[in-house]
Amino acid sequence: MTSLTPAELYRHGLRLLLAKDISGWVGLWAEDGVLTFPFAPPGWPQRLEGRAAVADYMRHYPDHVDLHDFTDVTVHETAAPGTIVVEMRGVGRLVQTGSPFDMSYIAVVTYEDGLITSYRDYWNPLAAAQPGADFAGAGR
Q1: What is the per-residue pLDDT across 10-27, written as a single tens digit (0 to 9) for each?
Q2: How far apart are CA 138 and CA 54, in angstroms?
């Protein structure tokens, strides 16, 4: 059990993603954690069940998106134990095209015993339709 708060755990995860430490980020997940994408367009995953599925989805992410920073990170505490709501922007570039990457996110994340058990990722599916937008191809 960790003494870190959900907000601290989340910010640690962002640092791992910026360092392209995908295995470290996946290590923050409970074995049976669930990642959902409520706004996923057709043909994109909507639900990943288990740490192994999350690892498979994320393993090639750095080959598609070169993240430079997470900006405008605001963490909202909730009344639900271990659950936070996060607003943020991920900025960087698309590896294949060199085009800028700038995505706004809202995430609802629940931690139990210091591990992610539920992560609802509300990203903008309209951005995926833009020319050259191969940023989420890691998971398709």
Answers
A1: 999 999 999 999 999 999
A2: 11
